[in-house]
Amino acid sequence: MSGPWYWCLIHARVEPEAGCPNDRRLGPYETEEEAAQAIARTRERTAQMDEADRREREWGKGWEEGR
Q: Which pTM does this prediction carry?
């Protein structure tokens, strides 16, 4: 079966184009394997952004204490 492929957020599985509505899934991806890795990549990117946000909030704290 050829793509496009999607990762369904409702069913937590890879689906072909004739699956759930697009607002409930990630994609499209060219291969089934790329779609299967989509949620892991999304979680990793979210963790990276959360860490960047934390660093930004913390930036400059303690500066006044060192004066």
A: 0.73
